[in-house]
Structure formats: C-alpha cells, structure tokens
Amino acid sequence: MRKIPISVLELAIVTEGGNAASAINNTVKVAKHIESLNYKRIWLAEHHNMEHIASSATAVLIGHVAGLTAGKIRIGSGGIMLPNHSPLAIAEQFGTLASIYPHRIDLGLGRAPGTDQLTAMALRRNNASYQYDFHAEIVQLQNYFSTKNKDSKVRAFPGEGVEVPLWILGSSTDSAYLAAKLGLPYAFASHFAPQQFRVAIDIYRKHFEPSEFLKTPYVMACVNVMAADTDEEAEFMTTSLYRMFLGIITNMRSPLKPPGSLPSIFNSPEVQQALKGMTAYTFIGSKQTLLEKLSKFIDETGIDELMIASHIYDIEAKLKSFSIVAEIMNGH
In DSSP terms, which residues pair with 109 in a beta bridge? Predict the structure, then answer.
C-alpha cells in the first residue's frame, strides 16, 4: 500500500429515529475520532432543501466542528456551492473561520447549486437570472483573500491576507480544465459520480499550470468505504447506503435506514444500472479485502490523497470502519 493522506467527507446525514441535532453530534464524534487516528481533514458538504441532511449552513458547521476538535485535523468544505453565494460573503465567512482556527480551514468550491432549481432560485434571489461564471467568481474570491486587494473599494474583513487554501471540486471534465488552469488542487466526487473520474484527472494532470498556490498537480479522490471485521458484515452494513442511493434514484428520500433486506425494486434492471453507475468506486469488506482493493485503486489512479465517505447507520460501526481504514492505510 502506497502511503498517502486519508480524509473524510461528512454530510451530517440524519439517521432513522434521529434528527438534525443528533446528526451534527455524530459528525463531531466522527471528527474527534478520525483526528485521534491522524486523518488529515474532514470536509462538510453544502446541500439544500434536503430534509435528512444537516449541513446546509456549511460554514457554521465547520466552525462548530473546528471548535470541538483538538487542533490537528483540518476542517473544510466539500464543498461550498459558489453559485449560491457572493464571493465577498464567502471570503468574509472563511476569513473569519481561518482567523479563529489558523492553518486549519480549507475551502473546496463547487459549481453546482447543490439542490433543485426552485431552491437555487430561492437562495440566489435576484441573481438567479444572470449568466454564471464559475472561473470569474473564483478569481474574485482569490482577490478578496489577497493583500493585493487593499486599494480596492470593496474588501473582505476578515479575509484579506488570511491563509485559506482553495480547492476545485468536480464530478465532470469541465472542473478538471478549470482546476488545471488555475493551478489549484482538485478533488473529484467519485463517491457518487464516478463515470468521468479517470478522464478528468488525466485532463487535470496534462493541462496543469503551476501557480503561486501549487507547483505540481494534486488529486484527491472521494470514494465510499465500508469496513468491518468480515466481508459479510461490511456487505450487510452497505444496505443502508444502497437504500440511500435508491431514494435518490426514485426521488423517495428518507433518513438513513438501519441495514436490512432491500425492497424488490432494488433488483429491477433500471435501478441496478443506475446504482452501478453511482457505486463504481465503493469499497466494501474486511481489512484484508480492503487492503487489496484500495491498494489497487491508489496505484492505478496515482491519487495524492484519499477522502472517504462512509454512510453507515450505527455510529459505533461507522467509527470502527474509520479505524480499520486507518490501520490499512498506515500499514498496521
């Protein structure tokens, strides 16, 4: 196993029988646990109008998690959906976070709204009709963080001169070209949109232009990982993830359910095809099984960092899964 940093993506998903408060509390438990295992970072994702996801106010949640961890782990956004916000507001929010928690805050940026069109319009209000330019908005955001902006009539306080590393998030090849052009690190959402992953990271590496932020390409891949003592136990745990994806496919979303038997619709050809497309980079199994699978994935893709999403119903099983992954990645 080639040793690379490992990180976690969290959505603060509400489990069956729980609520937003318990979901946020579980996210804090995850952050504290993986920090003790020397994971590099935990990122929180912005989603809106989704009843069973509690990470919509992403910057607020990042501050909460940062304040309750020991100070080693980095906390960031995976990502902030930039179309929903003015660059100035994001510069102020993350400038504030990085002023409170220096050298610990990451700002991952996405170009999608992270919701449906009606909710996107509600978020953007009067900005809903204008032609969105992700590239230009990122450059504007960089300007607000830069000390070169001090003569501008509009400045970000806190924010100006504060160290907040920017990342480009992607689930298609468009983002790969942009991350390469801007010379920024690139994080790919292969945990739910794996189809263009290999092509996108090849494009990013091929077209990468060094910048003041990054001299060589840096790729982080997010994948689903379900680890347990046995392959059978891991497969059983994964039925919760399958039910979650089934809810997305059929637009019948629900809290994250405990593992159990899957409904008959799960075996329909249409659902199986859609599910196969979403779970191509989902790694399930015992320590030995995952050692082989993850080692092969890391070697084949040449990624620089592995981020894992683990939508596991039982919090203790989830923490144990992260412990097993840490043992695998650290060669124990």
Answer: 80, 168
